[in-house]
Design brief:
The complex is a heterodimer. By secondary structure, chain A is mainly alpha-helical. Chain A has 16 helices and 2 strands. Chain A starts with 6 loop residues before the first strand and ends in a 6-residue tail after the last helix.
Chain lengths: ~550, ~180
């Protein structure tokens, strides 16, 4: 049973906060932010090197920085933050104690040790194999070992989360079903188990291969299983950041899901179908049939995309309904115009939603079309796409919820409020630019992971069009903007945690919690603003999809 | 709210809002359109990567390429042989650290069976500025049926990271009238 002495009562929500859970949330979030800073810096160096007029780093350092960038932000920052979210969505939201805090500290310790080992291995310079580490290119055994330890740690974290759900249910700490946000976090944790097991299946033999105990790893098999980790882990992020969108909508505006059933069904679709996405990386690979590619790349007829499109209406719809219930009912968009744009949690969340949908979602589906992939595979279009999903989507959403976690969990008031207000716009604009200009360069054929697109020391000449160079320059400028936004985030968060005014035990903070009860019902619900936004999205999607078929039809015939 | 248990305990029996229902139906149908579009293109379109591929030992692939080079080399360009194989024939392009070998010369509007394989690590065949991108693995021979429909000089870039000389790995394909 829980020791009652280990709880405090949150003055804002009235929830019981388990102190060991709170400590773990803090620890994971702090380490996450540290690695975001390191990985983000590496990313800036990469972007400045790819800006032909600047061309900052020499080739070997560039490839090293690119490897570190991928690992530190895509893996370490995001998964550490997700661990904090899992503990928040289970112990805190369910009013429960966290199951086995000791195991949770093992999660923290293993992930930290793993992350440090990988970073040291990469910085030593003989593991410059990129985040993907495709065989037969080989890293040192430490590289694989570090990732495996990190993954085992994360797996433990998932099981602590599941165990906490069981504990909360058994100890009846809540009434009825778990909250939608916890359901979304559970989706993320279930996908994480699949993902981490796939990672173990492929990285353990690869570790043995690097030690010389296994003679050969088939490159196609490696890719197929590696991406069952690599891509599915992005679906952990999607589930987690969609849960964060719902959470911020609720915490800032008191938004209530339009339909619990529909939103949960959409999460369920992620669990059922997102794992097929390994195929997105194998569309122009030898040895796989078109039937396999079509079925898998479309998540069995786009059923996981359907899940995201449902959230794409229900998240803004819930916000619109909450705003209208407060009386912001003039015209189509008063609810949006008068939204709390000065609150960085809301601004970050809404930018994340829009950028993820319009830039990340559409480009991902288009690029994941079997034949269209031929004109995009391994060009800069690919990082253009995933910076929209993982940076503008996941990272921006995580930044946004940090502005709520600092007062609620760290119990410190935000300092430098003006900087915090600007931060989501600065970062969002920068990342939108990064995504768009990389996609633009990719459409012109510019290769990803490439040090020198002028080919100055190559034996044969080749010239990319001048527009491509313009795109790379604009990408560099956007990266500077995004880096400024990232630095602003780190400064605000670190300064708030260290120097922010302490919030007392009985002092509630101002939120929109509990201000909205109901708005409309199934017959009378009116969310015209959301309908217009969704219609714009759908039109853009259809047009862009067919434009790319037209581009494809113009390349050399291959039948 | 989304952070509290659902207010209606029997939430799964709540009716669905019409606006959500219509959106789900529309989105589902759009998914079907996109799904069948890929199948349709296999019949109606001309840009489909073939499913023809074989396992092959790198030495054997190198041997076959060398036989082609010996038979059809028409001139040299620096260290590279320029090979002009007959239309319809099997053409071999070797990917290795850090070269595309040899330079190929095709005739416009003729078909070729282009074999791609790597002798060492993975590479990426990126034909520019046409923008056709295909992954090249060691141990796998991918056969593409390629019919160039423009004349000119084309670059073959490597777009799969293959070590520190990756950015110098560049090849060439000529298409003549």
């Amino acid at each position: 049973m829980a020791n009652n002495g280990e709880f405090r009562i949150c003055p804002t929500t009235g929830l019981k906060v388990h102190l060991p859970a709170e400590m773990l949330i803090k620890a994971n979030a702090v380490v996450a932010v540290v690695f975001l800073a390191i990985g983000g810096l590496a990313g800036l160096l990469v972007a400045l090197t790819r800006w032909p007029a600047v061309h900052l780093l020499p080739a070997d350092d560039f490839y090293l920085a690119l490897t570190a960038h991928g690992l530190d932000v895509l893996l370490v920052w995001i998964i550490f933050f997700e661990m904090a979210l899992l503990y928040f969505a289970s112990a805190i939201l369910l009013n429960s104690r966290l199951a086995t805090p000791r195991f949770a500290w093992a999660q923290f310790g293993l992930m930290l040790v793993g992350a440090l080992i990988v970073n040291v291995a990469v910085l030593q310079g003989n593991s410059t194999v990129m985040f993907t580490s495709y065989v037969p290119m080989q890293a040192t055994p430490w590289f694989y070992l570090g990732i495996i330890l990190f993954a085992v740690g994360a797996l433990i974290g998932c099981f602590v989360f599941f165990a906490t759900l069981v504990v909360a249910k058994a100890e009846k700490t809540y009434e009825g079903s778990i909250p939608l946000v916890t359901f979304g976090a559970m989706t993320a944790a279930i996908i994480a188990v699949f993902t981490l097991v796939s990672g173990a299946i492929i990285l353990i033999p690869t570790l043995f291969w690097s030690l010389g105990w296994v003679a050969d790893i088939d490159p196609l098999m490696y890719k197929t299983i590696w991406w069952a980790m690599g891509h599915s882990s992005q679906q952990i992020n999607v589930s987690a950041h969609v849960a964060v969108w719902y959470a911020i909508g609720a915490m800032v505006l008191g938004a209530k899901p339009l339909s619990e059933k529909i939103s949960r069904m959409a999460f369920l679709m992620y669990i059922l179908f997102l794992q097929l996405a390994s195929a997105h990386h194998l569309l122009v690979e030898p040895g796989l049939s078109s039937e396999w590619k079509i079925f898998n790349t479309s998540y069995a007829m786009y059923l996981a995309v359907l899940g995201s499109m449902i959230h794409g209406m229900s998240v803004p719809g819930a916000i619109e309904a909450a705003q209208r219930a407060k009386g912001l009912t003039h015209g189509i968009f008063e609810w949006l115009r008068k939204a709390p744009w000065g609150n960085p949690a809301f601004a970050g969340m809404f930018l994340s939603l829009v950028l993820f949908g319009f830039l990340g979602g559409i480009s991902g589906v288009v690029m994941g079309t079997e034949q269209i992939n031929l004109i995009m595979h391994n060009t800069l279009y690919v990082p253009g796409h995933f910076h929209a999903t993982v940076v503008a989507g996941t990272t921006l959403a995580f930044m946004a919820i940090t502005y709520l976690i600092v007062p609620l969990i760290f119990r410190r008031q935000l300092v430098m409020k003006k900087l915090a207000q600007w931060q989501p716009y600065l970062f969002g604009l920068g990342v939108a630019g990064i995504s768009l200009f990389m996609m633009g360069a990719g459409t012109l054929g510019v290769s990803r992971r490439h040090w020198d697109i002028t080919f100055s020391d190559a034996p044969l000449p080749f010239d990319y069009p001048a527009t491509a160079f313009l795109m790379m320059g604009l990408n560099g400028l956007s990266a500077i903007l995004a880096a400024l936004g990232g630095i602003a985030y780190v400064i605000v968060v670190v300064a708030s945690i260290l120097f922010g005014k302490r919030i007392g035990d009985t002092e509630p903070i101002a939120t929109g919690l509990g201000t909205v009860n109901t708005y409309g019902n199934s017959e009378t619900l009116r969310i015209p603003g959301t309908v217009v936004l969704v219609a714009i999205f759908f039109t853009a999607f259809v047009l862009y999809y067919f434009v790319n078929w037209k581009y494809l039809a113009e390349v050399w015939p291959m039948n | 709210m989304a952070i509290t248990p659902p207010s209606e305990r029997i939430w799964w029996n709540q009716p669905i809002h019409k606006v959500e229902l219509y959106w789900i139906i529309l989105a589902f149908c759009w998914g079907l359109v996109m799904f069948f579009m890929m199948i349709y293109w296999h019949g109606a379109g001309s840009q489909n990567l073939s499913n023809e591929a074989y396992r092959i030992k790198p030495e054997l692939f190198a041997e076959r390429a060398q036989a082609m080079i010996d038979q059809y080399t028409v001139r040299e360009e620096g260290i590279f042989p320029v090979v002009h194989p007959p239309p319809g024939s099997d053409v071999y392009l070797i990917a290795r650290l850090w070269q595309w070998w040899p330079i190929l010369e095709f005739e416009k509007d003729q078909s070729y069976r282009l074999h791609l394989s790597s002798l060492d690590w993975q590479h990426g065949f990126s034909l520019q500025p046409v923008n056709i991108n295909v992954q090249v693995h060691p141990g796998y021979d991918l056969v593409m049926n390629l019919r160039p429909n423009q004349a000119g000089e084309f670059g073959v870039i490597c777009n799969e990271y293959c070590g520190v000389g990756h950015h110098t790995m560049i090849g060439k394909i000529y298409v003549v009238e």
